[in-house]
Amino acid sequence: MDTVVVLKQFITEVIGEEFVEEMDIDMNSSFTRDLEMDSIEIVSFSEKIKAHYGDQIDFTGWLSNMDLDQLINLNLGMIVEYIDNARN
Amino acid sequence: MGKFVFIVPPLTGHINPTLSIGAVLLQRGHQVGWISLDSSLEQRLPEGGKLLLIAYEENDLQKQESEKYLDIITKKIVYGIDSIKFLYEEVLIPLNRHSYEGILGLLDAYQPDLVITDHQMFAGAIAAVNKNMPYVTSVTAPAAIKVMDELPKVHEWEVKQIVALQKELGVEGETSIACSDLLTMVLTSREFFGEMDLPEQYQFTGPVISERIVVSDFDWARLEGFGTQPKLLVSIGTTFDHEHKKSFFTKVVEAFGNQPLTVVVVSDPSLFEQWPDNFMVQHSVPQLELLPHLDAVVCHGGHNTVCETLANGLPMVVVPIAYDQSHVAGRVVRVGAGLRLNFNRFKANHLKEAVHEILNNISFRNASERIRHSFADAGGTRTAADLLAGLTAGKAAPAIGEVGILNH
Known about the structure:
Number of helices of chain B: 15
Structural class of chain B: alpha/beta
Number of strands of chain A: 0
Strand order of the largest sheet of chain B: 3-2-1-4-5-6-7
CATH class of chain A: Mainly Alpha
CATH superfamily of the largest domain in chain B: Glycogen Phosphorylase B
Number of domains of chain A: 1
Oligomer: heterodimer
CATH class of the largest domain in chain B: Alpha Beta
Low-confidence stretches of chain A: none
Shape of chain A: globular
Largest sheet of chain A: none
C-alpha cells in the first residue's frame, strides 16, 4: 500500500475521522500546527507506524533524534520520505 | 527552630502547595519566608509568614518589568510542542533572569537555613548555589520532569535552556541544577506519576492540597436546590486568556445547557450575556470545599485541579491546552480515572458523550478512588513538612527530632 495512504489512516485513528474529513491533509501538513496534535498524540501516531512497519525501519530512532524545532515543523512529507527511503 | 524560605514563580498552581507546607512549618514554630515578584502574595500567606518581595525600586523601568512578568504566561495562545518553546524562551528564562539579582539580595538579608525553590524557578537554585546555601526543589508540576522516551530531545532542549542561564549567572557545568541533589520533592504519588527511574533524592510526597485559605463565597443553597441530578465542575484554570475561554465555554454551554445536570463553571460571568439556568458561574469557587458535593470534573489538566479531583475520588474529562497538561491528561487516562479530549478539535457532542461515559461507567470512579488512596498513603503536606524539617533539625537542636522540639 502507498505510504501516504497508510499514514493518513494512522492520522485518522489518532485524531478521529470527522476531523480528518474537515481538513485538507497534504504532504505539507504539519503535525503540531496544522493537525494540532500534541506531544502525546504524536507519540501515539509514531507507535502505530512502529507497529505497522516493524523492523523494516527504525522510526523511533529517527524521531528521537529530532530537536524541538524539527518536531514543531515535522510534516507528513518528511515522514513519507523517511519511510520510503528507509525501505528501499 | 529552622528558618525556611520558599522561592516561587508568579503562578497560582506553583504557589498554593507552598502555602500549605509553609503553614505547617509555621505551626511547628519555624520561621518561613516567601520570595516572590508578586506583592499580592502577602495577603494569601499563612499567619506568621513573611513576604520577601523581589523589587528593584531604584529604577521605574525595572519595576514595570517586574509587573510585566506577573501575567506574562497569559499573553499568547500556544499549543502542543510549540508551547514548550514559548514557556522557556518567553516566560521562564526571562522571568528567572529578571528575578535572580533580587533573590540573591533577599537570601543575603534573610539568611535561611534551607531554601526551597520551585522547579521552574531555577534562578532560586542558582542563587542558592552561588550563596553556598543548601536548597531543596519542590516539583509542583510533576509531569514537567517526565521524559518522553520517544521524544528525548524535548527534555534535552529544556535542560539546554536552563544550563545556558546557569552559565550566564556563574554556575559552571553541563547539567541542570533545577532539581536539587539534596532533596527533590515530587508533589504527587508514585502511582499517579507513573514509571520512570529517578535518583533516590526524589521523594514522592503526594499532592499538597490541604490548609489553603478559602476566600471565595459560594451559593450553597442554590447548589442544594438543584436536587439529586449529577453535579459537574468545569474549570480551565487561571492562566488562559479570554479567547481560549470563550471558545471553550461556548462548547460547554452547547453540551450541557438545560440538561439534567448542575454545572458549576469557574469563569468570569461576563464572558457571555446569558448562561443556561442549570449553570452556576463564578469567577472563583472554594474548590476544595465544593468537590465533595460533586460527581465529576471537566478541566484542562492543570496539576492542582487534577490532584484535587483525584483526592476526592471523582472521575474527570481532561481537555489539555498547553505545557505539561497533555502529560497530565495522559496519566489520567492511563490510570483509568477519566477521558481526554483535544482542546482545539473537540465539539460539544464529544464533551457530552465523554461526561455521560464517566458518570455512568463506574470503572472511572473506581480508578480515581485507587489514586485517592495512593495520595493518602503518600501523606501530602505533612510528609513534605517532615522532609524539610528533617533537613534542618540537626542544625537547630542536635539529636532532637521534630517531635522533640514541639514538646518543649
